[in-house]
């Protein structure tokens, strides 16, 4: 499903975040130490390491809501933006911290004058953020920031399974 906010194409796609060769920067749903983990971090580091771990070592640790950028060794993208989402029920205010992940990633994309970025559904796996709330918040954040973004032309949400895709589709239709 596709939709436009200002001059930005917002795309939803079920798939694998590491298989987005037409995207300049992919987003890693990172852990604080920016190391290999499960889920998205495991998939990205599984392809990018050991070089990716070496690039992230000096940038760690990061706090919930923060984002940092590295090159994307062994990946088809130019950069990886690493965001630490909140652990739901522990990192508060979780909605503000999750919003900051998306805002900070978009700002880094702009700063580096990139045309495209792909997000996973940050914090909705092991960190327990309710996917419906996260989908709505992430898409609203992109819509609110869109008028201020100049270089970004495509924001893609790459969703791990059909359920996540459907939840994001409903959220996008409501905006």
Question: Explain this structure to me?
Answer:
The protein has 175 residues and is of the alpha/beta class. The protein has a single domain, classed as Leucine Aminopeptidase, subunit E, domain 1. The protein has a seven-stranded mixed beta sheet with strand order 1-2-7-6-3-5-4, sandwiched between helices. Helix 4 packs across helix 5. It is globular and about 40 Å long. The two termini are 13 Å apart.
SSE map:
Elements: E1 2-5, E2 8-14, E3 25-29, H1 39-48, H2 51-57, E4 67-71, E5 79-83, H3 94-111, E6 116-119, H4 131-145, E7 154-159, H5 162-174
Helix pairs in contact: 3-4, 4-5
Return the CATH topology. Leucine Aminopeptidase, subunit E, domain 1
List SSEs in N-to-C order: EEEHHEEHEHEH
| Main CATH class | Alpha Beta
Structural class: alpha/beta
Average per-residue pLDDT, rounded, comes to 96
Count of runs of 4 or more consecutive helical residues: 5
Low-confidence stretches: none
Q: Provide the spatial order of strands within the biggest beta sheet.
A: 1-2-7-6-3-5-4
Total count of strands = 7
Rounded to the nearest angstrom, the distance between the terminal CA atoms is: 13 Å
Overall geometric form:
globular
């Amino acid at each position: 499903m596709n939709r436009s906010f200002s001059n930005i194409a917002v795309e939803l796609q079920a798939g694998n975040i590491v298989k987005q060769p037409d995207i300049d920067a992919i987003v890693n749903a990172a852990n604080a130490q920016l190391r290999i983990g499960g889920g998205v971090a495991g998939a990205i580091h599984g392809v990018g390491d050991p070089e990716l771990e070496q690039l992230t070592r000096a940038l760690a640790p990061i706090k919930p809501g923060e984002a940092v950028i590295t090159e994307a060794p062994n990946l088809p993208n130019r950069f990886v933006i690493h965001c630490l989402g909140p652990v739901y029920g522990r990192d508060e205010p979780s909605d503000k911290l999750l919003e900051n992940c998306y805002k900070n990633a978009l700002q880094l994309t702009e700063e580096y004058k990139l045309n495209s970025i792909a997000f996973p559904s940050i914090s909705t796996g092991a960190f327990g953020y309710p996917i419906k709330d996260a989908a709505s918040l992430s898409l609203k954040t992109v819509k609110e920031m869109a008028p201020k973004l100049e270089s970004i032309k495509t924001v893609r949400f790459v969703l791990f399974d059909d359920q996540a895709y459907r939840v994001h589709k409903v959220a996008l239709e409501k905006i």
